Amino acid sequence: MAKNKYLLPFIMITSLFFLWGFAYGLLDVLNKHFQETLNITKSRSTLLQAAYFGAYFLVALPAGYMMSKYGYKRGIIIGLLFYAIGAFMFYPAAENSSFNLFLLALFVLASGLTCLETAANPYVTVLGAPETATTRLNLSQCFNGVGSFLGPIIASYLFFNEAPGATGGNLDAVKLIYVIVGSLVLVVAWIFMRTTLPEIKESEIVSEASLNQKPLFQHSNFTFGLIAQFFYIAAQVGIAALFINYCTESSVGIDNSDAAKLLSVGLILFTVGRFVGTSLMRFIQPNHLLAVYAFVNVLLSVLVIINQDWMSVYAMLGLFFFMSIMFPTIFALSLKDVGKHTKKASSFLIMAIVGGAIVPFVMGTLADVYNTATAYSIPLVCFLIVFMYGLKGYKVKKSTNYEEVLLDA
After folding, report:
1. What is the pLDDT of residues 220-238, one digit of tens each?
2. pTM, whole model, 2 decimals?
3. CB–CB of 47/362 below 8 Å?
């Protein structure tokens, strides 16, 4: 990076982080919006998360295989095209007021995002020295946070139009915003088609220690990281999916529009947390910072569960700040010294995002049966698992068993 060899590719790849952050930022506002405009329950609305993050589980391995065969650039372009197609599918879904069509559109859109994430996350880690991979990935993920908080801000004004008689206008706003997004993504895809990106081979940049190539699932930092990533994403998605419900059901008197704006505040804190965390990693080991952030979130989750008016709402906002570094830090620590398995390992780590498809539905069911505050006991457990990974599970164990090397070869 000092010689600017990878500066332009780094900037271009980082722009992708913004694009999928924006798509995710809109998603959590759609939950509450569809509960009202399409008259569905909380648990049914979380099927949006199931469609979105389920795509990550189903598409990640094929995307990883495609990149191994054809390279990062083609994977990125295909991802952008699927993203655009999914965005344009929102138009007929809104025209027909069909929740099922919205689910299909989200699945197609998220299939594109899966290709982007499977390509972009490991690509950033190899665009420079291995020892600074975690810092680089956190920096790129900062712009993912910027897109995430802009989404709810825009949606709060467009989706929750409280003007008298403005019912159908809400779905008109959904059509408008996704057509604009789809058009922008097509422009970005065209730019990538016209730009040369270096195709970096992991074997050229990994450390000498990683040349001892044991099978992927014998890398304990990867296998535990896979589990930690599943539960972290489960917590992040579940917290955001029911955030508006939590705020509007509390006794502090917040309506849908104000709750959506509060969600954007939380995502701003999420973004600030990434910039702060990236800076702190210059002085603090990434795994230590991960453990501290996870432990703080365990304590904040307790305050959310007891549901004490504004104190609990503020604790909910605090969760976003301390979640900020978790995904990129777990991702980079999991890929450390996996060498030639990097693309395959990235695919599995993206598949772990399926936690965001499964757990929010469980939380939505708990919220329907009991109350929304009770549902936040699940993120508490998730953060405990992340804490254990930052404390111990991240460690790379070196293999001296040469039979494993021969078997893997």
Report:
1. 888 899 999 999 999 998 9
2. 0.73
3. no
